[in-house]
Structures are given as structure tokens and as C-alpha cells.
Description:
alpha+beta, 3 domains, three-stranded antiparallel β-sheet
Amino acid sequence: xKTLKFRNLTKDEIEVRVGGGNSLLLYKTARVDANILDxxxxxxxxxxxxxxxxxxxxxxxxxxxxxxxxxxxPLWVFKADGGDDDYTMERVKAECSDSMKRAAFxxxxxxxxxxxxxxxxxxxxxxxxxxxxxxxxxxSKGNISKLVITTNFGKDIVFTYPKTRNYSQNxxxxxKEESPTTKVDTEDENAPxxxxxxxxxxxxxxxxxxxxxxxxxxxxxxxxxCETINGLTASQGIIVVGRxxxxxxxxx
Length: 252
């Protein structure tokens, strides 16, 4: 039986939530836990079950410790934790999700998030609705050693850790984006978005959560004066797609 160790979370697996006291919190979803369990031990070598104890939802995650040896009888070990959730109307579903995330922490999935530094929102970004992890790195012990949080889809840097000359300090602008390298016929500056960029953006927004979806279109309206993808010009479409690609927001 091999030592069971789960990899660190990537930046795309970490979400950012506004907490109390103008702070930002890093968290993962139950979907991320399930994907990492599938990836590490295999879809048929883990299971979950839910039950309530004194109105608290409990989730147990069981893993077959002989997941790497199909010739042995399964040896199931369970770890459990309780959860609650008060930020959604779908309370039962939220409690199940929260308890699963906590049970996964017991197994070590995403436990490095506990090593995150305190993240305070600078004054100029307190009205922002959506934040994201732009960069995250870990040391040999799995603790967070480098962290960059941005808003406006990578346009503005909100927080950096540690503060070094290689990164902008809290609240400073991210490096100015370069002009698109793709050439577009500029005789008509109001030419509509090309089909190529339109298809990329349509597929992109189809994979966003509701919060991300709303933030994306608020960004389009703020930066480009458009409330729809079809409202973008050809040049704007190239710039938007280029920005998303440079910030690794597109799933290709």
C-alpha cells in the first residue's frame, strides 16, 4: 500500500470569498474534492455518506487503502466532519457540500489553504464583487509561499504575498496589457466581433458559475461599454480573448 498523499490545489481550483472585516478567504468546492479523489485513488475506491447528529450534517469520506492493489480485498477507512452553511437558500444541499469539504480536509485535500496569510481588501476594491487567485505556490511542506489575488479579470492586483519587488503591492494596477498581435481590418472600427472570438467567449461563459457570469458581463460593460458578447467589436473581441488567455481563464 502506497502512502496516500493528495496534491496541492491549483489556482483554478481555489475560489475567493469575501469574509468579515473586509477580508478575503480562500476555499474549495466539493466538486474539487471529488475530482481529486477520482484522480488520486480512482472513482471506485472512495465513497461518501451523510447523516445528521443534533441537527448538524455529517459527511464521512471512505477510501479503500488498497486502491493501488486490485488483488487485495478493499480496506475501507472513513474520516468525517460536520458542516453548516448560511449563505444560500438551498440549505440542505449547502450543508452536504460544506460537510464534504470539511471531511476532505480531514484527509488532507486542500489543507494548505489553512496556511494562507490574512488577506485584507484595499479601500479602492471594497465594492468589487468578484476576486480570483492569479498565482499560488507552495513550499516543501505544502504551505503557501506565494499568493497573488486579482479582480476585474486580472486587471487589478488586490493582494500579494510575500511583498517583494517582483510583484505590485496591494491595490496597484497589474501590468498594462499589450495590444493584440492579431491584425484586424480597421477601416470600419465598428466591425462586429468575429465568429472565432465569439465562439470562444460563448463557450467560456457557458462554464462560469452564476457569480462569475455576472462579474464577467459587468466587466464587459465597465471596460468596453457592452452588455453582450455580440455587442463587442472585432478589435474588442480579440483584446478580451487575449486578456483571458494571458490570465489562464480559458479552458482549451
